[in-house]
UniProtKB/TrEMBL annotation:
Organism expressing this protein natively: Halogranum gelatinilyticum
Protein name: Homoserine kinase
Chain's role: Catalyzes the ATP-dependent phosphorylation of L-homoserine to L-homoserine phosphate.
Domain GHMP kinase C-terminal: 197-270
Domain annotation GHMP kinase N-terminal: ranges: 60-139
Length: 293
């Protein structure tokens, strides 16, 4: 049996739709895999009652098929489904890493990324890797056209998760099919700023680079209290605020000393909007880790 911890992630970061992602130091999923003649899945933990255990309907089933590695899989969810924190991606990433070692497939971490990405198609209808990439590799990742770049950044973050659900499929439906040239130029500039900030470990540059005028505004409309929470986070010291992945999670970049106040301000703002929430004081962290063999 092999046990793997795979971290939550935040994709897009505002200006990097379907390209940027970061691994979060916490929360995380812990997954155990054991060889079996037929694949079975057992799920416990956060939101487990909403996660199908049928391999054909669970993200990890596609990973098992791609690696031709049947197993009994136990998933302890630390990341709530439909959170915008890469819940499905973490499970897929952990299973990919675990089965690769269990069956001695010999694939590199980079080679496991597209395999884990196939599991995302079960949830969103598309095989994209902006969440599985940082969950496997860690750090800040740029994934585009099959190429992956990783930056070992360590930016402090606050991820605030409201007790509402936004499905990935619904969040993708509202994404505009077109953008003006002004918005494209603005997005490119912000994405470049964010990337430079990650390379320099500069929370101020990262925060400036998170602003987006194309995808974030329409997704924010799906999140009750978003503008109030965003404003509260900035007032408490955040350098940048955006929707985490498909939402409803909201991500704030900041300096280390401001995390506690920002987390409290975001939770209070959601409460003022009539929504319960939980905030994680975290930072960009490492990718999937084998805990035991």
């Amino acid at each position: 049996m092999i046990t793997v911890r795979a971290p939550a992630t935040s994709a897009n970061l505002g200006s990097g739709f379907d390209v940027f992602g970061v691994a979060l130091d916490h929360p995380a999923d812990v997954v155990s895999v054991e060889k079996a003649d037929e694949t079975t899945i057992e799920v416990t933990g956060a939101g487990s009652q909403f996660i199908p255990e049928d391999p054909k309907r669970n993200t990890v089933g596609a990973v098992v098929e791609a690696l031709d590695a049947p197993a009994h899989i136990k998933i302890d969810k630390g990341i709530r489904p439909a959170s915008g924190l890469g819940s499905s991606a973490a499970s897929a990433a952990a299973v990919a890493v675990g089965l690769n070692e269990l069956y001695d497939r010999g694939l590199t971490r980079e080679e496991l990324v597209p395999i884990a990405g196939e599991g995302e198609a079960v949830v969103s209808g598309e095989a994209h890797v902006d969440n599985v990439c940082p969950s496997i590799l860690g750090g800040f990742t740029i994934a585009a056209n099959g190429d992956i770049t990783t930056v070992p950044a360590s930016i402090p973050l606050v991820a605030c998760l409201p007790e509402i659900a936004v499905s990935t499929r619904d969040a993708r439906r509202v994404v505009p099919s077109e953008a003006s040239m002004d918005d494209v130029v603005h997005t490119v500039g912000r994405a470049a700023t964010l990337t430079a900030g990650m390379c320099r470990n500069d929370p101020d540059l990262v925060g400036k680079g998170m602003h987006d005028r194309v995808v974030t505004p329409v997704r924010a409309e799906l999140i009750t209290g978003y503008e109030m929470v965003r404003e509260a986070a900035f007032e408490a010291g955040a350098t940048g605020v955006t929707v985490s992945g498909a939402g409803p999670g909201i991500l704030a970049a900041c300096h280390s000393g401001d995390r506690r106040e920002i987390a409290s301000a975001m939770v209070d703002a959601f409460a003022d909007a009539g929504v319960d929430s939980r905030a994680y004081q975290t930072r960009i962290g490492d990718g999937a880790e084998v805990l035991s063999r």
